[in-house]
Amino acid sequence: MDHRHLGRSGFKISEITYGNWLTHGSQVEDDAAQACVRAALDAGITTFDTADVYANTAAETVLGKALEGERRESLEILTKVFGPTGPKGPNDTGLSRKHITESCEGSLRRLRTDHIDLYQAHRYDYATPLEETMQAFADLVRAGKVLYLGVSEWTADQIRAGHALAEELGVQLVSNQPQYSALWRVIEGEVVPTSRELGISQVVWSPIAQGVLTGKYVPGQQPPEGSRATDSKGGQGMIARWMSDDVLARVQDLKPVASDLGLSMAQLAVAWVLQNENVATAIIGASKPEQVADNAAAAGVRLPADAMARIDEVLGDAVVTDPARTLESSPKEREV
């Protein structure tokens, strides 16, 4: 397993990160989740990503239990704050000092650790002054409860503003966590160039487009039973945008590309995002240990230029590139 620096910091994370969104505490049972974490460790993955909002804090609890007994210094634990948790009261969401401080304490308890390696603002909070948010994060860093700071799904302008405040406060904003795949490339136009300039890396989620890029969904056929497309707890809604026959047919046409390179479709998709030099790691999720092993094998794979060109040609106008789509991720009015 190769490791890459996160931004301009000295902090390294594994090229493949194991994430438990839509799985731990929700889609799979705890014993299966723990087996997936074990498979990740066996594959050389040292970086684990979660968030307090996943399964309303249950995902952090499952991950903390699964990692218990591992050497803490050999792990990089990433979590996030913003989304509504608990009973979803007026201060149970957002990036206020109150919510950030209390959420960090809760995450530390659930993850069974005394510090978070990378604490990320899960979305941009239009209802809280950015100065308040960054000051609260900086205080957690100075208290030793957080080592590095990141954001998720922020626009280029938002990242620039957050980075400037972090510098003023003497703390490190080193990452952005956006959705990124061969089908969803909205960060390439503005977010990536800005991040490169500022010394910020991408920690990308959904590199296989919620499973669509594995090729298991066939146009004109019902989704496989137990797949994300049949998960009414959340996965079904997220994957819906890719379930048109046109997109699915294009993905099927990628199979010869993967075959020629001796890769599975999942490995091809994960390797594709890792070709971007601004990407530090690709977050993979799994409901079965064998899925972890398959995806993790994409680490260190370098795709030749002709394969990258073939992927572009096959996917064609199914690819989403509009930078403005990032704005859709952060609610302009906070839900409570």
TrEMBL record:
**Region Disordered, residue ranges:** 216-235
Q: Which GO terms describe its molecular function?
A: oxidoreductase activity
Is the Acetylation keyword given for this protein?
Answer: no
Enumerate the InterPro entries for this protein.
K_chnl_volt-dep_bsu_KCNAB-rel, NAD(P)_OxRdtase_dom_sf, NADP_OxRdtase_dom
UniProt keywords (A-Z) are: NADP, Oxidoreductase
Q: Which SUPFAM superfamilies match?
A: NAD(P)-linked oxidoreductase
The reply on keyword Nucleotide-binding is no
Q: Which Gene3D superfamilies match?
A: NADP-dependent oxidoreductase domain
Write down the Pfam families for this protein, in alphabetical order.
Aldo_ket_red
Database matches in CDD domains: Aldo_ket_red_shaker-like
Q: Which residues form the NADP-dependent oxidoreductase domain?
A: 15-314
> What family does this chain come from, according to its entry?
Belongs to the shaker potassium channel beta subunit family.
Q: Which PANTHER family match?
A: HYPERKINETIC, ISOFORM M
Q: What is the recorded name of this protein? A: Aldo/keto reductase family protein
Species for this entry: Pseudokineococcus marinus
